[in-house]
Amino acid sequence: MSGTRERYAAYAERIAPVSPTYAAWARSVDDDLVALLDAVPEQQRQPELVFAVARRLGADPSDPGALRGLGREARPAFTAALATATVQANDPRRLGPVVPLFAALAAADDRPLGLVDAGAAAGLCSVPDRVTLDHRTVAGVVRVHTAVAEPSVHLTVDVSGAAPEPATTPVLIGARVALDPNPIDLARPGAFDRLVEAVPPEATDRTALMREAARATLAVPPVRVRGTLPGDLDRALDTLPDGVRPVVLTTGTLVYVPGADRQRVVDRLRERGAHWIALERTGILRGVARTLPDDVDPVDPDAFATVSLDGVALAVCDPFGVRVRWFRRPAA
Predict the structure, then answer these.
(1) CA 246 – CA 240 distance, rounded (Å)
(2) What Cα–Cα distance (Å) separates residue 21 from each residue in 15, 87, 229, 277?
(3) Tens digits of residue pLDDT in 268-303
């Protein structure tokens, strides 16, 4: 039980500066809630997923005791909902660290990229070509990528280290596939409201950015494929047309995949000859972790996630992708 309690305590410390309400919920986890959470699969215990399900079932995040109350008063419904929940934050800020990787691939090949966004939810990270990206350093702000069309998303990332040079080739996406256990069609009424259930209520700027990304996604909607990793990876890749360079993107996706299956995903990507761009929790992929510099500390909040291309770590960043330390420049 201590593992779940410690996980929520660490989340509370991490989220407190941006969401006191979610921090209070995380700190409210008692023995009864730990027992409830330990009854569902490990990958279903992610705090933001749990809180999104709680809000869907009527818990008010402004009430610090609402989570405990739901666990007491609606325990069977809460447990059942958690067991099948597929809510994801789908945070477009995570595009900030990975757009330079897409730009490197675009510069190395005349073919447009065929993107499979694995764990896509609503596909808000399926639009790297529609991101205007600025890098902020101690020397000032540098534009490193300009969106190929409107509507688009504007992101500013604080960077240090061996930051990538500005892109000289636009990122051209020839096909987009959104792979998810329950892909969200943003064109359906209420879809966006469902998506932001996972967003802390104080994060109004984040919700506004998600709305920008939703407009960009609706302009170039992906083909939605219902499925999971690793079992449906081949089916998603087979959806791409001829003449594109296959690229699979995972952003905070593999933490939901059981440990043994994570390596199966990596192995299958290599077998299929697809590029793999990832922003995943530092340390959950042993092969990627072996390519990290010795001075990277996984408990450092600014090394929470690792940015990698084809299994080689290039940078680490905070959970939201807004502070990035680069130690290798991306190259195809």
Answers:
(1) 8
(2) 9, 19, 32, 33
(3) 999 999 999 999 999 999 999 999 999 999 999 999
